[in-house]
Amino acid sequence: MMITQPTEMNPRITTGIPRLLIAVLVLLMTSQSVWADVGARLDRDRIYAGDTVTLTIEVEGRDSGSKPDLSALNADFTILGTGTSQQIRIINGERSEKRELRVELDPKHSGTLTIPPLTVGNSSTPALTLEVREQPAADDAAAAGQPVFLQTEMEPAETSPYVQQQVLLTTRLYYRVPLVEGSFDAPQPENAVIERLGEDSQYQTTVNDQHYQVIERHYALFPQQSGTLSIPPVTFTGRVISPSSRRTSGSRVNTMMERFFGGNPFDDSFFSSTPFGDPGKRIRVRSQPLTLEVQTRPDGYSGRHWLPGEQLTLRDSWMQGPPEFRVGEPVTRTIRIEARGLEAAQLPVIEVSKIPGMRLYPEPPVRQNRTDGSGVFGYSEQSIAYVPSQPGKLTLPEIRIDWWDTASSQQQTAVLPAWEINVLPGDGSTATAPPPAPAEPVWQDPGTDNGAAAPETGTPSRQTRLETWWPWIAVGGSALLILALLLIWLLRRGHPGQIAAVGQAVTGKPNTARTPRGGEARQALERACELNDAQAAARSLLEWAAAIWPEAPPRSLGALGQRLATGTAEVHALEQALYAPGHETWQGQSLWEALQTGLREPVPGPSPAGDGLLPLYPRWEHKSL
């Protein structure tokens, strides 16, 4: 029987087992810290309403690649943006990884806010507390040494403005930290119109022993109804460079603020440390709201239009006196309104009274707003065409505009004086009779004169007469050939005025042949008559007449009607359709039937008494003046 002896264990193995067990226990106990290390912090734990705060989440270990769940922040914050950074270290062959996530938060309300724990992989961040205080008043902000704050002033500040009176708002941004971008949100009050004035101004100042850069902006506000007007705050949103991220090299960059404001507001050594590529810290500041009591229109004001302003003047293009007036010829007058403290849209249309013996054709006004940075200037320019219809003395009445002087709280009146004019008879437009043609020589055959011989009667023979006239016939033929060649050359070069002159030299009377310009005008007249377009017909008819009589074109439909042999009544009907009330409907068939064969002058005769020219066609006349 074989007895087996127990084998003794190796002392080394026995000794290594406890060590292995200890290592496993230590690994199990520290597995949580090896798995992940998560932390969170705020850059500030107390801020003002309108400021933003940055939450930084740090993750190390295996969860460093996990994205945190930020949905729990939406209850009390607006997430403006996120950014990440990552660090990898290898020490003695061991690799470690650390990741940071920066979250920019905008609190939705004031008070004590809690940032709840946020889940990152299998871990959570600790809860944090943030105190959000109300924005202090501008003076309090300066006293508290705030690096950025806003002030808004109103002018007039002590008196209540009238409805539609200009109120000036001035906003000043004070800052003593580098800004890399920024924008203003202009106030948007109800029942008021607001307009920015000019460019921003930049300067330096000292407030409570603190040096500040200032950006100043101006607005013009026009209340549209009386009563209490609330003006909401002006808001500035921008970014500042945190001191920890500034460079010390003193290099300059083209900041976002420089591009925004159209110039560099930080042109000194204090702002020379802006870091390139650093987005900066987001800030938002607001001014204090304002309240305005708006007065109604004064009971004693008698003007037709309510015009509250600082100054209003009328300017006349006839400052040196009216020009010469003739019957049927237009005279243009331009009147300009200039008003300080009123927008151009508020300025009225100039109203002119009817004048016996005169027709008036006012044009729509041209309006424009201007500013010198301290207020609005409204401009309105209006032209009026005066067309006298009879000679003699006429009176053009004065022009008055009432307005309210906001400086003196009194009604004022701007006046252009009346003018006395003497209307002369119009220039006659009847055609001049051409000179009588020379008598032609009598061609007589001696064989038919009762058998009388030519030498006895003193009448030259046929051969003698041909020999006598032949040099003149040759000269005349050569001249006609030269004129014909010249006419062909002018037609190719396209000179209708010279063509008319050549034609007149050849025929001894004005040339009524259609030039290229006249042909186009004639075709345009035909189209206008087919479409019953009175405006286009009048324009084309006068252009056709100007091509036929380039040396003395008729300047009005009335002058053209007196010049024509046929179609005078039809031209007068066209003029009535354009200007006389109750004749707005016009049919062009009769005009085209009367003039389609051409524009012809009547047989020369005595000029009619007087000169009752009809009014001009103002659109065509305006182009030719």
Give an overview in words.
This protein folds into four domains: 35-133, Particulate methane monooxygenase, b subunit. Chain: A, domain 1 (Jelly Rolls, Sandwich), CATH 2.60.120.570; 138-294, Immunoglobulin-like; 308-424, Sandwich (Immunoglobulin-like); 507-624, no CATH class. With 625 residues, it is of the alpha+beta class. Strands 20, 22, 23, 24 and 25 form a five-stranded antiparallel beta sheet that branches. A four-stranded antiparallel beta sheet has the order 1-3-5-4. Helix 6 runs antiparallel to helix 7, helix 8 packs antiparallel against helix 9 and helix 9 (534-548) packs across helix 11. Strand 27 and strand 28 form a beta hairpin. The chain is built from 13 helices and 29 strands.
Short summary:
Helices cover 24% and strands 33% of the residues.
What attributes does this structure have?
Immunoglobulin-like, alpha+beta, 5-stranded antiparallel beta sheet, 4-stranded antiparallel beta sheet, disordered N terminus, 625 residues, disordered C terminus, Jelly Rolls
Per CATH, the architecture of the largest domain is: Sandwich
- Report the C-alpha radius of gyration, rounded: 48 Å
Q: Average pLDDT across residues?
A: 74
Could you describe the largest sheet, including whether it forms a barrel? 5 strands, antiparallel
Task: Give the overall silhouette.
Answer: elongated
Number of domains: 4
Number of strands: 29
CATH fold naming of the largest domain: Immunoglobulin-like
Beta-strand content: 25-35%
Structural class: alpha+beta
